[in-house]
Records
---
Amino acid sequence: MRTHVRTRGRGVDYTFVGTTPAPWWAEFGGLTSFEKPTLLVSSDATGWRVYASAIPTVRRDSSSTPIRLSLLLAGTHTDSLPDGVLPLIRGWLADSTPGAPQRLRELVDEEFPEPDVEELIISSGEPNDATVDDRVNRILTALAAKDTSDPPDPPRPGIWVGGIHDESARRAFVDLSACLLTGRTTGWAVQLTLAGIPEIADRFADEPGSTLALIRADLPEGPRELRPKGPPWRTPPLREKPPGSSRALALLALAAAATIIRHLTAHPRARPAPPASPSPSPNPAPSPGRTSSSPGAPTGRRPSGTSGRRTHPTGHRRERSASRGSRPLFGSLSIFW
């Protein structure tokens, strides 16, 4: 098992007091604030990892701000798991409960007092790794001696969310962590400070195995399944009700009615004017040199009653639309189909 400690001194900003590990936790930078309590537990084919951040201490910096300490642990599934790793996770969760005894904080203050931390920061680097390992292992041993928990229940595949301070969600978090640390399953157990349900769904949608995220204090009791991947685990799944089709049809009907009203208001239909009555006129005088036509001969005048208008062969008069600029009434409704 490899151990790392990150903290700061009175005049030196946060840094690792030994070797700096690869920042595998940095991918959660947009989902949590590592200056606030954040817990990450993961397991895959290469091994397991734990990041327990923002453990409070009695030390203060030059501006009297409380100094925090973060523990990083990592190991492989082929090596035996130290007894105190799971109690460390349980102790971290217990210490983050308002008003709870600060057992982990007391052990951290004992193993990393201010004079020793200042010296370790000054000589930071690989020579400090052995000292850091010894001190962290003593913390784990002390936590394991106080741990009397029962064996965890096996987890089921899926993505789960729970409240930060919910007791049943915390028990599920410890149970999943135990299976992750022993290689019984792959996945994540995380407590994040900035993530919501949509961010959790996006981040862990393609992750194999089981994921449990503690993210808010106002979630329902117990872990709830966010996106089903397998059988239910302890509690019924939390699913969003899909919107009904009746609502969509109602919105479509309202949009169609609004379009019709807008069309009628912008383009009122004009009533056609009644035909003008023909006015009688005296017959014109015959032209000089022409004789009056005999009865039945063509006179060159239109028959009476036509009013000078041309007639369709079928006998029906053709009329133009009263409004040249009017558009088809339902033409603008084509956008809905």
---
Amino acid sequence: MNTRHIICLLAAAAVLSGPARAQLQPGDETVGPGATATDVIPPWQMEFENLSLEARRDYGSILGDAARLFGQKRIFEALNRIADADEIFPDNPVALNLKGACYVEFRDFEKAREVFSLAFDKQKVVLSDIENLPDEKRYARMASVADILFNIAEMDFVTNNWQRAHDQFADLLKNINPAKEQMIRLIELKLLIAKIKLGRMEEARTLAAKYDYLDDSPFYYYAKAALAYHEGDVETAERARATARRVFQKPGMLAAWEDTMIEADYLKSFYGGDLAVDPTEVPVPE
């Protein structure tokens, strides 16, 4: 699986190394690093903000290196830098999310799921009573954890755990800011495919008809392709994908959508097999 669409908060290091803030005290509502401003501050953010200014700057610089290395597909080196960051402050959800993405690159999905789940455990307090909040606060809280929840659901999607992927993507859609249109459309495609795999065809067709060709995302074309592949109509599916390529010509825009077709086994992956890397073979500094 290509991880171009895994949302890894690669820009978080810039936040971490940004302007200094006063150290947090209990009850202070200043927002910690790597998260969207909310009215709830997870304990890890409080702990991080109470590090010295020098430690926070060093941490941000190191995590920035890790993000840069990950973007260059230098995954072993990225893991090394994450380990260096952990020596200053262990188990920051931003770093954990990036570490999980590294394991995805190795196709070790179970290890990735474990790390993403740990990241969520560190951040999940922001979801407390979220269903009772007004939209603005609900969207702000979800923004600080949506990428992690997406990654966890994605691990079920790529390992063909369709029911769990379906339920997690459906839950995620309930609280995402409607302004995040491209992310929502991609999640909806994955939800549609999960419905197809579960035999919930009426629901899948209803979801596929939600948008038309005038939509600003490729959803219409890939939803049509997914249904066609399922029905064995390869010609229609290929034509829909070809039309998407003509309409959406910006480099990289269709990568996530094509990857989703591969993950659903509609297209052949260039990997040639699901070979996971033993996590004990990943060189992490002691």
